[in-house]
Amino acid sequence: MFKETILKEIDDIKARYPDPKSALLPTLYIAQREFGWLSHEAMHVVAQSLNLPEAMVRGTASFYTMFKHKPMGRHLIQLCTNVSCMILGAERLVDFLKNRYSLEPNITTTDRRFSLVIMECIGACDRGPAMLVNTDFHDSLTEERIEEILEKYK
Ligand code: FES
Asked: Looking at the predicted structure, is the pLDDT value of residue 3 above 90?
C-alpha cells in the first residue's frame, strides 16, 4: 500500500486527466520510485489506486523498458554502447566496469550498490561514450572519469 503522501501525489496526477488510464505511466513511475522496482505487489497497488484492471497495469509496465521488473541496486548505471559510443570506446568501459566493480550487464553488485544496463543511444553521440547514473547524465567517459563519477554514488 502507498503512504498517504503518495496517495495524495497520485490523486493530484489523476485530477489532471479525464480518464484514470492516462495517469498509469506516472503512477508506475511513482511505484518504481517508492518500491525500487515493479513487483507484482507494486503493480497490484497501482491497479487499486487507479481502479484499473491489474492485467492492464502489468501489460503496460512490461511494454516499457524503463520499468524494472526485478530488484536493482541503489544506483542504476545505464551505459550506451551503440555505434558512436562503441567507436569512442564504450566496450572498453564495459570491461572496466566488470574488472573494477564486478559489474556486468543486467547484474547487480553483491553489495547492491550498482546495477548495470546497456542502453541504446541516449542522445550524446558526439560526446560519447555516455551513461546515466540514476537520472544524472555523464558524457566523454573514460575509465578514470567513471571511477571519479561513481565515487559520488555510495
Ligand atoms: S550512440 Fe551513444 S549516445 Fe548516441
From this structure: no
